[in-house]
Every structure is written in structure tokens, then in C-alpha cells.
Amino acid sequence: MKFLLLVFILLMVGCSVSKNPLRKEVKLLQKGILKDDTSYVYALPFPERKKYRVIQGYFSRFTHKERAALDFNMKKGDTITAARDGIVVRAKEDGKKGGLNRKYRSEGNNIVIQHADGSRAGYWHLQHNGVLVNIGDTVKKGQPIALSGKTGYAFVPHLHFLVWRSGGGQWQQVPTRFQTSKGIMYLRSWRKYKKPAQ
């Protein structure tokens, strides 16, 4: 409980809120005011029947103020699974350091998976030597791909997950819908989400 209180305080005193126009759209999608039935529905990036809390959501005040990204509160060594089928295009697992200091950014272990539609998903802050796949591997949704850690710019062990796609000559972040035990939804900060059995 002390951990959650500390994270909450950090989020409240963090940087100002993003002026990115996507932030407003995400809030409307999360509240159900805007309806989206066209975007891909992702699987939660952890094993079936597991439940994790989102400790930082899209455009949160702490370190996501310009990111349509999600942080799942995971312990070191927890299994991370692919949220969608694809091909591994990047994998780094040699980083050993992590902490709340920008000097650790380059230490962040990660995997990037490219999907059939050209979009990509990134999985960050993985454990040292915690990558379970290789560049060029084809992975299936739900397949174990890595172990959670605290490498790179990370205050606590967690999984940083985001999706982006190319558009207009540059990469753009994409807010994602997930299949949860309570249905399809855009995830929100401070809530726990359970992955249903397939």
C-alpha cells in the first residue's frame, strides 16, 4: 500500500499534462463517449488468469505526459506475453542498470514486435538476460516473450507497453484496446485488469 501511495504522490506532483490532441481523444475513448470498433483488440501482455494493475496510463503526468503508453506493475521475473501476433524486429537484454535517472535510459532492455498491418508494439524495462525470443522469430499472441524487470529509466519493476504505426512519414503512437475479463476496453490508470482464459 505504501508503494501505491508513493507512486500516486509522484504522479500528482509530476510534470504538467500533455497538450497532445491525442490525449483528449484517449480520455473520450476510455469513458466510452467516443466509440471505436475498428482498432485491433490486443491481448493483455501477461499469462491467462493473471491480474495486474496499470500504474501509469496514457498521457499520465509522471513520465507518460507525451506517451500513449501503459505501465503494468509487475515483479522482477514475471512472465510477459505477446499482445499480438508478429515478428520480432528488435531485442535487447544486456542492460543491467535501472533507476529514476535519465542516465539509465540506454540500459532499458526491450523487445519490439512488428504486426501484419505494419504497426509495432514495444515491451520495455525487461530483466537482464530476460528476453525469450530472437530477432526474426515469429511469435503468436499469448506466447511468453520476456521476463519483467527494472532496467532503464524505471522507478520500480514494471512493463512499459506501447504501440505505434507509421503515418505521414513518421511514427505515431496508437492507444490500444484490450480484451479483459470484463470485456473489451481502453485501460485506465490505477485499475487492475485480469486476462481471461482463451
Total separate domains: 1
Q: Which percent bin holds the helix content? A: 10-25%
Q: What profile does the largest beta sheet have?
A: 11 strands, antiparallel
Topology, number of strands: 16
What value does the Rg take, in angstroms? 16 Å
Secondary structure tally, helices: 2
Report the CATH topology name.
Answer: Glucose Permease (Domain IIA)
The mean pLDDT is 85
Query: What is the straight-line distance between the termini?
Result: 31 Å
Instruction: Please identify, by name, the CATH architecture.
Output: Distorted Sandwich
**CATH-defined superfamily:** Glucose Permease (Domain IIA)
SSE-based structural type? mainly beta
Low-confidence stretches: 4-16
Approximate shape: globular
Could you tell me the strand content as a percent range?
35-45%
CATH class: Mainly Beta
User: What pattern of helices and strands is seen along the backbone?
Assistant: HHEEEEEEEEEEEEEEEE
Could you characterize what this model shows?
It is a single chain. The chain is globular. The two termini are 31 Å apart. The protein has 198 residues and is mainly beta. The protein contains 2 helices and 16 strands. The chain has one domain: Glucose Permease (Domain IIA) (Distorted Sandwich). A hairpin with a 2-residue loop joins strand 14 and strand 15 (183-186). Strands 2, 3, 4, 5, 7, 8, 9, 10, 12, 13 and 16 form an 11-stranded antiparallel β-sheet that branches. Strands 1-14-15 form a 3-stranded mixed β-sheet. The protein has helices at 2-13, 21-31, and strands spanning 41-43, 51-56, 69-72, 79-81, 86-92, 98-99, 109-114, 120-131, 138-139, 144-148, 152-153, 159-167, 170-174, 177-180, 183-186, 192-194.
